[in-house]
Amino acid sequence: MRYNNYHKHSHYSNIRSLDCVSKPEDYIKRAVELGHTAYFTTEHGYQGNIYEAYTLCQQYGLKCVYGVEAYYADDMYDKTSRTNYHIVLIAMTEKARKEINRIMSLANQDGFYYKPRIDLNCLLSLTPTDTIVTTACVAGRMFKDDWEEKFFIPVYEHFKNNLYLEVQNHNERVQIEHNKRILKVKEKYGVQLIHANDSHYIKPEEAKYRDLFLRAKGIFYEDESNFILDYPDSDTIVQRYIAQGVLNKNQIMEALNNTLVFDNAEGIKLDKEFKIPKIIDGDSNVVLRNIIRNAWQKEKPNIPKERVKEYEEAIYYETKIISDCGMADYFILDHEIIKKAVNEYNAVLTRSGRGSAVSFYVNHLLGLTEIDRLKSPITLYPTRFMSAERILSSRSLPDIDLNFADVEPVIKASKDILGEEGIYYMVAYKPLQESSAFRLWCKANGYHIDEYDEIAKELDNHLENKKWQNVIEDSKVFRGVIESIAPSPCSFLLLDKPIPDEVGLIRVGNMNNYVMCCALDGYNCDVYKYLKND
Known about the structure:
Blueprint: H1 24-33, E1 38-40, H2 50-60, E2 63-65, E3 67-72, E4 85-91, H3 94-109, E5 112-113, E6 115-118, H4 120-124, E7 131-134, H5 147-159, E8 163-167, H6 173-189, E9 193-195, H7 207-216, H8 234-244, H9 249-257, H10 284-299, H11 308-325, H12 328-345, H13 361-365, H14 382-385, H15 388-394, H16 408-418, E10 423-431, H17 434-444, H18 449-457, H19 469-474, E11 482-494, H20 499-502, E12 505-509, E13 514-521, H21 522-527, E14 531-533
Parallel strand pairs: 1-2, 3-6, 7-8, 8-9, 10-13
Antiparallel strand pairs: 3-4, 4-7, 5-6, 10-11, 11-14, 12-13
Helix pairs in contact: 1-2, 7-17, 8-9, 10-12, 12-16, 17-18
């Protein structure tokens, strides 16, 4: 039978808990193989890379459903205890996705103590009909420290039929005892069961790669050391429950059937329309022309009379390109940000421009560069920066790059214009490259660093080496695995909607030295047409 594998983790979970080498596409291919219809973004502590997931789901014909395995604490503001528990949240609507984004952003901002934590107040802020909650794995809040009064009863009273008791089929004592207690809760309160794989890889034989990855990182999860955390078919799931010996046949089928509740989820909704903040009322083209006209009137006396016509033709030509492309709001926004940053916060914009934006004289009038392309000793072609044909056919934004001595005044100015939640650093995901994957593989397999260190520096020279060729080949399983993130250097997302809701935030760094970033990288920013300022 078909079921939904809503509780799974890909290598994006490594951002919060080193745990996995499987990639989203591995899960998606397996879902297609089993005749499943949905993929869930569920990762540890944040929503994962929903943009990559959505793109892949479009490619493979699956519905992309937003989920997160959050870290829960009774009081997220209590910094005296590192205790946290797992809880699974699945968005059934777009409204729920934004609400969960909000509390997960809060978890990263205010609730962070070794992990980004939510608490009961966060849970109860979610619309109960739009989010499904499961009690998660044996690391959940159930059966620990006054669990009924502090956690279960208020959550059940809020979410009612949208709360499910999660069971898993691992034939280990800790899971067996957990499932027995879950059945008693079901009998007492009438709450429905739901099955979870808690997948960390696809096939059982792939467990060894996860084990090697964790070994290289010096990590051992004792409670789940004998768990099978794969993505099985339903027959295998049933057989494992029978071997476990806790649930009867009806309860097994109830748990599996209830995963189909996620068939009713709307799924993530993303589009590739330009998302340029609009900060003025009225016709943006008219407003931009007025700004340019006023700047030109101030500049005109400095231009030789015999060249005035040439300049005005250039201004008309460039302004028409902006209008034809529907990009007026982009230029207005950058003009206002730079003006405020320079005039109110003493920002220092470098004299020379950066990138192709210097090829537009209009950018000089708007204060975005001191370069006057018509005076330049080198010919600067406007279409290198922007042409209606290129922008409209490729559906790409023009790229205005700016150099500042200090970026903080620009951030302050952007917040003044867009609001506190209108600008955040973007993230850069850090996948293992050939050399780093090889080093980690060698470490996991017990090689001494003196053996492989020099080899790692010149892998291509050892592809036919009898000792190392198989090791190099085997290490490919680690290539591309994401194990960390960093703030994208000087790249900011600008939005006229609250980024903590629309995109979500993630803390990058440690507790004392960190940057709050939006959960969006540069590549997907371009794909889904968000506005990035460099």
